């Protein structure tokens, strides 16, 4: 689970901060729709070592 730190537009990457091994790591992130800053998300796919696909965390 992570949090959007740079809004994710419909046509490009944003950035998410994900908890990893007791710390936090920033990843470039894509989504199937725009996602705003501070929204909680779930990583659904790892595209590369520093890029992920996310979707909103269910309420």
Task: Explain what the structure shows.
By secondary structure, this protein is mainly beta. The chain has one domain: Nucleic acid-binding proteins (OB fold (Dihydrolipoamide Acetyltransferase, E2P), Beta Barrel), CATH 2.40.50. The chain contains no helices and 5 strands. The two termini are 13 Å apart.
CATH superfamily: Nucleic acid-binding proteins
What do the pLDDT scores average to?
96
- Give the CA-CA distance, first to last residue: 13 Å
Tally of alpha and pi helices: 0
Q: Count structural domains.
A: 1
CATH fold name: OB fold (Dihydrolipoamide Acetyltransferase, E2P)
Report the major sheet: 5 strands, mixed, barrel
What class, by secondary structure content?
Answer: mainly beta
- Order of SSEs: EEEEE
pLDDT < 50 runs, ≥5 residues: none
Secondary-structure map:
Elements: E1 2-6, E2 14-20, E3 23-30, E4 40-48, E5 51-56
Parallel strand pairs: 3-5
Antiparallel strand pairs: 1-2, 1-4, 2-3, 4-5
Features:
5-stranded mixed beta barrel; OB fold (Dihydrolipoamide Acetyltransferase, E2P); 59% strand; mainly beta; 59 residues
Task: Characterize this entry briefly.
With 59 residues, the protein is mainly β. Helix content is 0%, strand content 59%.
């Amino acid at each position: 689970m992570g949090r959007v730190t740079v809004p994710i537009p419909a046509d490009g990457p944003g950035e998410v901060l994900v908890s990893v091994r007791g710390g936090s790591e920033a990843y470039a992130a894509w989504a199937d729709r725009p996602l705003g800053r501070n929204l909680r998300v779930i990583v659904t796919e790892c595209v590369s070592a520093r890029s992920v696909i996310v979707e909103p965390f269910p309420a």
